[in-house]
């Protein structure tokens, strides 16, 4: 079985699960672990030790073609549920066929920046919303592969909640 991942064929942006917002260009958050530099006896130099299940600030950015009422509404200072639904195209080289794969990214986030963009004749405004992500869940073909919930102390990576024992140890 030789499946080659190729590209995203289409996607859409949704608010509160049911409100279609369009298809602005999306910059997804990165997962940069919090780290502490360790040095001393038993270590030949320094190593950065990750704090397992803890991540730095994560931002989601959506660039729109024009200034829209939805972009302005997303600047309201409260938590927003933003879902991204995508179709990825794969190629099954063994069968010589294309395969479609579902990717759903669910977020809960708060606005930290609204850039209305620019006005130019015959051009996009490049309006942009930027959000601090408090919760993110990534599902591929319906299976959760990542779920980070910073306020509820949940960190699921590839089906394993790496903070489960930590929650038990601290009484949560």
TrEMBL record:
The name this protein goes by in its record: Phage major tail tube protein
Species, as recorded: Lysinibacillus irui
């Amino acid at each position: 079985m030789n499946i080659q991942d190729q590209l995203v064929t289409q996607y859409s942006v949704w608010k509160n699960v049911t409100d279609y917002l369009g298809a602005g260009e999306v910059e997804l958050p990165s997962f940069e672990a919090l780290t502490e530099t360790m040095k001393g006896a038993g270590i030949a130099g320094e190593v950065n030790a990750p704090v397992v299940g803890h991540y730095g600030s994560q931002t989601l950015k959506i660039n729109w073609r024009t200034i829209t009422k939805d972009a302005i509404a997303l600047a309201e200072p409260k938590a927003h549920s933003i879902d991204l639904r995508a179709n990825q195209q794969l190629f099954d080289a063994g069968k010589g066929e294309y395969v479609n794969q579902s990717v759903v990214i669910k977020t809960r986030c708060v606005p930290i920046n609204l850039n209305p963009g620019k006005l130019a004749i015959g051009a996009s405004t490049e309006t942009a919303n930027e959000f601090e992500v408090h919760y993110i869940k990534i599902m591929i073909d319906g299976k959760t592969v990542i779920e980070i919930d910073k306020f509820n102390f949940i960190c699921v990576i590839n089906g394993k909640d790496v903070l489960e024992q930590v929650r038990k140890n601290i009484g949560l």
